[in-house]
């Protein structure tokens, strides 16, 4: 049984949900910021970083709203998700990331996401 806990991160983004969704759900978009190389076949993304590879199956997605992925090596109940919300107060686009990590590793994993999201923001001119 996994001891991992779910955590959630939020990032305000200055772009439209449709543009952001392209960067979160397509091989070309993900290759811009998430991995060195990204392929997609039979509902599975193949990600490569410095020669190592991981695969993630698309569990669910709703265009311009969210995509939920499952690392093929991870327990079935674990996933990571990119969700796009619009703030009711500011009308700003918000990227919400849900992921799982060991409790003591949440801070480190959050920093890794922060680094990745900074790269995403640079790519979309945010």
Automatic annotation (TrEMBL):
Per its UniProt entry, which superkingdom is the organism in? Bacteria
Q: Tell me the ranges covered by the START-like domain, including all copies.
A: 1-125
Signal peptide as annotated in the record: none
InterPro entries in UniProt? START-like_dom_sf, START_2
The UniProt entry, under Pfam families, shows: START_2
Q: What is the protein name for this chain?
A: START-like domain-containing protein
């Amino acid at each position: 049984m996994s001891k991992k806990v779910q955590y959630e991160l939020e990032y305000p983004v200055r772009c439209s949900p449709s543009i952001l969704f392209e960067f979160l759900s397509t091989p070309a978009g993900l290759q811009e910021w998430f991995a060195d190389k990204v392929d997609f076949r039979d509902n599975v993304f193949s990600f490569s970083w410095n020669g190592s590879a991981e695969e993630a199956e698309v569990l669910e997605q709703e265009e311009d709203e969210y995509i939920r992925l499952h690392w093929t090596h991870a327990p079935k109940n674990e996933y990571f998700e990119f969700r796009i919300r619009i703030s009711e107060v500011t009308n700003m686009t918000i990227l919400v990331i849900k992921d799982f990590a060991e409790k003591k590793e949440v801070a480190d994993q959050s920093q890794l996401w922060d680094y990745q999201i900074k790269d995403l923001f640079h790519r979309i001119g945010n």
